[in-house]
Amino acid sequence: MPTVSVKRDLLFHALGRTYTDEEFDELCFEFGLELDEITSEKDIISREQGDTKAEGASDVILYKIDVPANRYDLLCLEGLVRGLQVFKMEAPRYRRVSPASSEPQRLVITKETTAVRPHAVAAVLRNITFTQERYDSFIELQEKLHQNVCRKRTLVAIGTHDLDTISGPFTYTAKPPGDIRFKPLNQAKEYTAQELMSLYKTDSHLRHYLHIIEDEAVYPVIYDSNGIVLSMPPIINGDHSKISLNTKNVFIECTATDLTKAKIVLDMMVTMFCEYFCFLLWENILEPTGQYVHSDYPHSICNPQPFFGISESTEHIAQLLTKMCLRSEVMSDGEQIEVEIPPTRSDVIHACDIMEDAAMAYGFNNIPRTTPRTYTIANQLPLNKLSELLRQDLAAAGFTEALTFALCSQEDIADKLLKNISETRACRISNPKTAEFQVARTTLLSGLLKTVAANRKMPLPLRLFEISDVVLKDESKDVGARNNRRLCAVYYNKSPGFEVIHGLMDRVMQLLEIKPGQGNGYHIQAADDSTFFPGRCAEIFACGKSIGRLGVLHPDVINRFELTMPCSALDIDIEHFL
Amino acid sequence: MSPAQETLLRRVEKVDGGLDSQDVATSLGVDHQAIVGAVKSLLALGDVISAEQRSSKHWELTGEGCEIAEQGSHEARVVSSIPEEGMPQSQLMKLAFGKVGFSKAMSNKWIRLDKGHEGGPRIFKTVEHLEDLVRDKLLLVQKGQASQLEEKEKNELKKRKLLSEVTVKSYWITKGSCFSTTITKQETELTPEMIASGSWKEKKFKPYNFEALGVAPDCGHLHPLMKVRTQFRQIFLEMGFTEMPTNNFIESSFWNFDSLFQPQQHPARDQHDTFFLSDPAQAHEFPQDYLERVRKVHSEGGFGSQGYKYDWKIEEAQKNILRTHTTAVSARMLYKLAQQEKFTPVKYFSIDRVFRNETLDATHLAEFHQIEGVVADYGLTLGDLMGILHQFFNKLGEGSTSQGWGQFHSFNSLPGNVIQFKFEVGL
């Protein structure tokens, strides 16, 4: 969940009242948010860098609020306020207005851009007054959107410009890097695009975005009618058109590889800040394929009653939805509701999203709790039932259960057990964060031995077991791998205790009601296995099938797991006993 | 009973008040420690005697002090060793007590030094008799009459390391509440012989120490997390939920993400959050018509949804991963349910491992367990979901009234008004 940091006092000012921390926490909860932390800049610095560095930092109280990942309209102070005023205010309506005096602005997209970053949308906001706070908020919203829905500028990149410093019509095109030359934001001189690539390689913020266009033959670039470069998305804007506190009219452009997302982002930028403007003017955009006009509100029709389980009048539900910024009206049949979905709510794509909002407005805790009418008979999964029964009895036999990781390093299941990795049929992970997660385990033994190694100081003997899944490659399954439920036990003491492990195995067989003997019973016979001490390893057969091994572990294995005492182990496949 | 104990008891019997253990030791002529031993073993028998620890300070001669007490102080010996005609200084210095004695004798003015004498500096006696005060004082202490000396004198001798103050611990012994000169040994335990012969009736038994802990039984243990799992499993079964087969850690992106309507560019499908497999890298079998429906809903919409409007790629869906939630299994189960001829209402649950490629810290692991429940029926409502959750927590005994809010997802592979809910609790 993304976290938004807002100044508490600004927030309360915008909301029109103050809350105690508890009251605000509850309000957040009802709305589906979480007040994660109450802190201040000073606290943050103090915690990260120590008290001395925190001297002089701001004491202003900050609220850190967690918002759902798909609610882009809650990523800034303005959006939060609007959402929270749910219970008081009317849902705002956003209007597209044509400019009073002149033609609408145009953004022409040329076909060169299809090679690198095909889509673009744009809008104009007029008659703005920026204060320092609004300016900061404006910039921060762009950052938040970049990080979230824009997927770090790869899907969409936002550029904002002072309209009065430039003149349309604007052109969005793509050119070879050597042909692009301009003075970028906050720099003193002009650079070519290539020079900029090397310049920003060391910039801690921008270098992460260079790769998006670095190796392309052409780079995207936006010009105005006088050839001034507005920006080179997704990297940097031009210095000429930068926004300041004096800016009155803003030109917003979003270039993208995903048109749907570009529209969502543009909607967000525009709707969040329109409350500061006297008039909202939202103008046409052009694509090479033809004229495109931003769509009016999509409507949705739904019948909410069955969903809730409450008996509320349809009117009331319509009112609730309107409170959530989803203007609704009861239709003529009295049963259905027509809902208007504003541009701020791009997360609403199905009737169920509307119902979710209605439920939230009603208050989840107000919905009476009922139980489903149909009764069902429960069934246990036989494999789990078997595992549970065995677990209890193994603990009763004096062994302690361990819970180990299913992911491990390659050495753990191969080299350390004196086996070859190719024998193991292990599934390999392509993006492990550390070497500890290279493969999925093919045996429980490694985990148990690591557990013993971590508990060397405990009094001997150590008796551990685990009944859990290992993962094996299997081409007959649709995904190419399957789990295998196994039982593994180790005995670690001054003497290896083969008879103890053997006794445990006998006990397990007794519990499974398999008698010793050939044929339908179980028996063991000597076997060779590199993991075990020669002459001290046996294979277990039950009902004619090999189900596992037991024996004294090879000293090399003991050394490689950093152990010092002799150890015996048992490892069987219990899926045979279903 | 040892002779020391017996004698001690008799002594205590005779005396009205009490005895000091040191005195007893001295009068018996035995080592104090032996008496201490006797005292302690008598104490262990119960309230036969009571002993109060005392410590007293005591002046004693050091080794050097003893030597002086015997042979005289260094300075006195210096004087006595000088003949009538005197002695060369160098010769005097060769004597053991020479150096120390010389300076002291000089300060006492018992000798004089003639530096200009021919043949080297020479020492002459100045007095015939002397009072070896130091030796006298030490002898007093040796005799046990240290109290006759003043503190100042004692400290001075202490500084010269001739005397040392010794702390002596002793016991003040008095009669206990069960005093008797005979001791009966107490038994510790009942034995089979005592039971057989009945001799236990005559014996006295040592009291038990009820403050101590008993012997811990040598038993095996179940893992605490697994115990919780068992508990949750039990609750589900009691509520009529059937267990889903979740024994497949490796899942295809199709079942884990796409069938659950999670768009292909969603951050959760990132390298940073999900473990992808390099071997086996791809799943190769899918129910084809279902796959087509999923593709359509993602890219164009359907079943009342607008969809995400992007190009849905099968290569993404084929990628194998370690499942990030057991909802993948729920999806499979619901698909199977949809294939049935006639719909039957179901309640499913599972508690099993899931994997997320997170940075490890104190509260986050890459593997953890997830509890999942699914209810499918006609006419289910939000109230039913809340009701089930409420019952679940009641059975858990947490006592808390769970407050609800959630992220609801709708899975639209079933026809009609059937609505499914999912609730997700991480463990």
TrEMBL record, chain A:
Q: What's the superkingdom here? A: Eukaryota
GO MF terms here are: ATP binding; magnesium ion binding; phenylalanine-tRNA ligase activity; RNA binding
* Keywords of this entry: Aminoacyl-tRNA synthetase, ATP-binding, Cytoplasm, Ligase, Magnesium, Metal-binding, Nucleotide-binding, Protein biosynthesis
InterPro entries for the chain: aa-tRNA-synth_II/BPL/LPL, B3/B4_tRNA-bd, DNA-bd_dom_put_sf, Phe-tRNA-ligase_IIc_bsu, Phe-tRNA-synth_IIc_bsu_arc_euk, Phe-tRNA_synthase-like_B3/B4, PheRS_beta_core, PhetRS_B1
Q: Which Gene3D superfamilies match?
A: 3.30.56.10, Bira Bifunctional Protein, Domain 2, Phenylalanyl-trna Synthetase, Chain B, domain 3
Broadest EC class assigned to this enzyme: ligase
Any idea where this protein resides?
A: Cytoplasm
Per the record, its GO cellular-component terms are: phenylalanine-tRNA ligase complex
Q: Which Pfam families match?
A: B3_4, B5, PhetRS_B1, tRNA_synthFbeta
Biological process terms in GO annotation: phenylalanyl-tRNA aminoacylation
The B5 domain sits at: 286-369
- Swiss-Prot/TrEMBL cofactor(s): Mg(2+)
| Entry EC no(s) | 6.1.1.20
Among CDD domains, the record links this protein to:
PheRS_beta_core
Q: Where is the signal peptide?
A: none
SUPFAM superfamilies registered for this protein in UniProt? Class II aaRS and biotin synthetases, PheT/TilS domain, Putative DNA-binding domain
Key word Metal-binding present: yes
Q: Does the keyword Transferase apply?
A: no
Q: Which family does it belong to?
A: Belongs to the phenylalanyl-tRNA synthetase beta subunit family. Type 2 subfamily.
Family matches, as PANTHER family: PHENYLALANINE--TRNA LIGASE BETA SUBUNIT, PHENYLALANYL-TRNA SYNTHETASE BETA CHAIN AND LEUCINE-RICH REPEAT-CONTAINING PROTEIN 47
Protein's name according to its UniProt entry: Phenylalanine--tRNA ligase beta subunit
Automatic annotation (TrEMBL), chain B:
Q: Which GO terms describe its molecular function?
A: ATP binding; metal ion binding; phenylalanine-tRNA ligase activity; tRNA binding
Q: Does the keyword Aminoacyl-tRNA synthetase apply?
A: yes
Aminoacyl-transfer RNA synthetases class-II family profile domain location: 227-427
Keywords, A to Z, come to: Aminoacyl-tRNA synthetase, ATP-binding, Ligase, Nucleotide-binding, Protein biosynthesis
Give start-end of the signal peptide: none
A Gene Ontology biological process annotation? phenylalanyl-tRNA aminoacylation
* Pfam families (UniProt xref): PheRS_DBD1, PheRS_DBD2, PheRS_DBD3, tRNA-synt_2d
InterPro entries attached here? aa-tRNA-synth_II (IPR006195), aa-tRNA-synth_II/BPL/LPL (IPR045864), Phenylalanyl-tRNA_Synthase (IPR002319), PheRS_DBD1 (IPR040724), PheRS_DBD2 (IPR040586), PheRS_DBD3 (IPR040725), WH_DNA-bd_sf (IPR036390)
CC annotations in GO: cytosol; phenylalanine-tRNA ligase complex
The reply on keyword Signal is no
User: What EC numbers are recorded for this enzyme?
Assistant: 6.1.1.20
Origin, by domain of life?
Answer: Eukaryota
Stored Gene3D superfamilies: 1.10.10.2320, 1.10.10.2330, 3.30.1370.240, Bira Bifunctional Protein, Domain 2
Question: What name does the UniProt record give this protein?
Answer: Phenylalanine--tRNA ligase alpha subunit
